[in-house]
Amino acid sequence: MTLVILVQASLAHADASINEEEWMQYKTRFLDRGGRIIDNGNHGISHSEGQGYGLLLAYLADNRSDFELIWHFTRTELLLRDDGLAAWKWDPEARPHVTDINSATDGDMLIAYALALAGASWNNKEYVAAATRIAKAILQEAVVKHAGRTILLPGANGFSARDREDGPIINPSYWIFEAFPVMNALAPSDAWELLTTDGLYFMKSLQFGPAKLPAEWVSLRTAPRPAPGFERIFGYNSVRIPLYLARSGVAEASMLGRLRQSLASDDQPMATVDLTTGKRLQPLTDKGYMIILSLLDCLTDGTKVPETLQQFQPNLYFPATLQLLALSFLREEHAACL
């Protein structure tokens, strides 16, 4: 059954949905010769999230050699922990390069998800076996019960009720809904379906301040609230929330529409947001951010995505990654939007 589910998931991406030119631009800017994805908006560091995204995009571009290159760096430089998860931060200027051994659950899940899809599509049992080990480790170290809900801790250490007085802490942008069925195929547990159900509950209920947007870091000790010790903002990472919901197909149109209205309007441009005051902070004008608004418009009212947002001209790692994920999804599932 596991193999069948993985093959079905991989068949959903059977044809390359990122074209050769787009992948060449992406890898020229962000992939070094050793397989490291460079976050050029964050002092040139690398992290498990970036490696996971790199693997997923290489798979969606059907580029097996680059996939293996990225995987080689990931397994030799980041998969150093005893529990099977990846260290999240790698700094080229530091010695040793790993400067924070803690895990980041979104990075771990992206790595496992991409390995599983590639392993099933390309008949590579080693990829599937590696994905299975990571999925089991996520289940063991980062999936917990709290107040009747199944939640995803952002990392193995530092976020649980044992670790913090205001714990557990969650980061809503770490819920990669499309990956949960694949994780369940790798490491069967009812927890994965519960993560979908309870994750949707949080996405609906986390509406803070005048903007009614989720905080990046949320304390669940009592009623959900922006976690003390973190900025009370809707930040860059949170932009992924509607993209993940759309790509997974688990959200109702009403939820996507509400998020769209909260993200921007004619007189309120898309930006990071101070959740206390509702003030717009840093404008999010890169195509990789703007295409998410356009994607939501198409899914909720049929408005086509402007051609300018379909043109890929990468500048910064994070929005470039989001743009390719959005374009890939639209080509696979909603070609009428283009």
UniProtKB/TrEMBL annotation:
Originating organism: Rhizobium straminoryzae
InterPro entries: 6-hairpin_glycosidase_sf, 6hp_glycosidase-like_sf, Glyco_hydro_8
Similarity comment: family membership: Belongs to the glycosyl hydrolase 8 (cellulase D) family.
GO biological process: cellulose catabolic process
Catalysed reaction equations from the record: Endohydrolysis of (1->4)-beta-D-glucosidic linkages in cellulose, lichenin and cereal beta-D-glucans
Name of this chain's protein: cellulase
Keyword Hydrolase: yes
Keyword Hydrolase part of the UniProt annotation: yes
An example molecular function term from Gene Ontology annotations: cellulase activity
